[in-house]
Amino acid sequence: MATTTRAPRAMHHEGRKPSDETRSAVVESLNRRLADAIDLQLQAKQAHWNVKGPNFIALHDLFERVAVNLAQHADLLAERAVQLGGVVEAVAQAVADRSELPRFPARITSGRDHVMALTNALSAFGGMLRPGIAEAEEAGDPATADILTEVARDIDKLRWLVEAHAGASN
Ligand SMILES: [Fe+2]
After folding, report:
1. How far apart are CA 53 and CA 58, in angstroms?
2. Which CATH architecture has domain 20-163?
């Protein structure tokens, strides 16, 4: 850190290229968040398929929306990693190894349990995105910071939509 001089912020937008070292750190971070995004997408599908109860249709549809949005976010994160010269590691085994999300509870069926589990997962993912935004800014990569911010904003919204069902009698 002491050996580099940070360019003024405005210069970031004039095409200053991050070094190979910072680029590979950003790629590594994108791969970690990609694993979380794919894990979360599958957790939402698990909830979409298994939920039962009086709010079935509302929750079934909401959980599908979460899964669809997470698939789009995974695509954004993966393609950014490749644009930076990285290799994406997105097969099931890599995702299982890398994901930092809490394990989704097995064998739950109620709406309330699924709402709680998915709210926890969305909160955890949102919390892990934020340090990456600052890291990417520090690395002189505002485009990656922007992508992570876009994902974080949608995760906040999805969490709000899911958590709103927590008080329902389901
Ligand atoms: Fe479906």
Report:
1. 10
2. Up-down Bundle (1.20)
